[in-house]
Amino acid sequence: MSEFDRFLEANEAFISGFTEGDLPLPPSRHVAVVACMDARLHPTSALGIALGESHIIRNAGGRITDDTIRSLVISQQLLETREIVVLHHTDCGMLSFTNDELVSIVNKELHQDVHNHDFLPFSNLEQSVIDDVNQLAKSPLILPGTPISGAIYDVKTGHVSEILRK
Amino acid sequence: MSEFDRFLEANEAFISGFTEGDLPLPPSRHVAVVACMDARLHPTSALGIALGESHIIRNAGGRITDDTIRSLVISQQLLETREIVVLHHTDCGMLSFTNDELVSIVNKELHQDVHNHDFLPFSNLEQSVIDDVNQLAKSPLILPGTPISGAIYDVKTGHVSEILRK
């Protein structure tokens, strides 16, 4: 049985209790969260986000990339969000490799040359949050004056620690 | 009170019931989900995903971009995922604008010229899922033979409908 089949089966149980079919498209709390894709982090649970309340953008590391900015422009300019929270976490996979190492793995496993790719690993977790918040704060495509916060989720305790606010 | 403050407050309640501090880094179900950032979609709830089970990548539309591929390479090559599910949804914001319209809005609101940006809107929801699954299937950076499925979540009913499998 594929995981997709298991998802479809689990969805049958989900819809039997579904009562939130009339929510508006713009997030009701006017906030967008940028978080890591990590399996041990469910931003909705950890931050108390109910259905309809917040955009949630996720990628490897919770990094700010061209695609994150694309999503945030749509979020702010079309869907009325006015605050951004960046959420990285302890024991992140991005702390465990360098670009050179991943280039070498991709070359061996997929026979592809990706030496010109930046996979955006980092060696200092707190600094990665600071860097990403600062990158958002200086982006000309983010609404001036947007409150932007950065935090770290501890996968061992579930605790979210504030790192900085802009 | 900022939304970030409300998140920190909600996190206090979350950690009081937290018992999952010993999960391994690789997702236990070896699957990665690519989904839209929409506030009305919580992939973990809709698909029955528990903490530790699945990578979840999200952006505007749940589209396949260079950054999605970056995340999936890390997911597959370093963290052992072997299946991908693409999840778009009804009433998506990506159905509501064209690149020209958003370029015009960004020019007016932010005084920035983004005519060379593709914000990846779509006019046909089902086709957007097919396109993104096909793009993954033909990517040289995705492991050959990876099962890739595409589905649509109905924001009115919570129901997930299969569109295609590769």
Q: What features would you describe in this structure?
A:
- The structure is a homodimer of 166-residue chains.
- The first copy, chain A, is α/β, with parallel strands linked by helices and 166 residues long.
- The first copy, chain A, has a domain at 21-92 and 124-165: Carbonic anhydrase (Beta-carbonic Anhydrase, Chain A, 3-Layer(aba) Sandwich).
- Helices cover 36% and strands 19% of the residues of chain A.
- Chain A contains 5 helices and 5 strands, in the order αβαβαβααββ.
- Chain A has helices at 3-16, 43-47, 66-79, 99-110, 125-138, and strands spanning 31-36, 54-59, 83-89, 148-153, 160-165.
- In chain A, strands 2-1-3-4-5 form a 5-stranded mixed sheet.
- The longest helix of chain A is centred in the first third of the chain and has 14 residues, at 3-16.
- Chain A is globular.
- At the A-B interface, α1, α2, β2, α3 and α4 of A face α1, α2, β2, α3 and α4 of B.
Give the key terms:
homodimer; 166 residues; alpha/beta; Beta-carbonic Anhydrase, Chain A; five-stranded mixed sheet; 5 helices; 19% strand
What is the compact description of this entry?
The structure is a homodimer of 166-residue chains. With 166 residues, chain A is an alpha/beta fold.
Strand order of the largest sheet of chain A: 2-1-3-4-5
Major sheet attributes of chain A: 5 strands, mixed
Q: What is the H/E order of chain A?
A: HEHEHEHHEE
Look at the helices and sheets of chain A and give the structural class.
Answer: alpha/beta
CATH superfamily of the domain at 21-92 and 124-165 in chain A: Carbonic anhydrase
What's the overall average pLDDT of chain A, rounded? 98
Oligomer: homodimer
Give the count of helical stretches of chain A. 5
**The CATH class of the domain at 21-92 and 124-165 in chain A:** Alpha Beta
Q: So what's the overall shape of chain A?
A: globular
CATH architecture grouping of the domain at 21-92 and 124-165 in chain A: 3-Layer(aba) Sandwich
InterPro entries (chains A, B): Carbonic_anhydrase, Carbonic_anhydrase_sf
Catalytic activity (chains A, B): hydrogencarbonate + H(+) = CO2 + H2O
EC number (chains A, B): 4.2.1.1
Organism (chains A, B): Streptococcus loxodontisalivarius
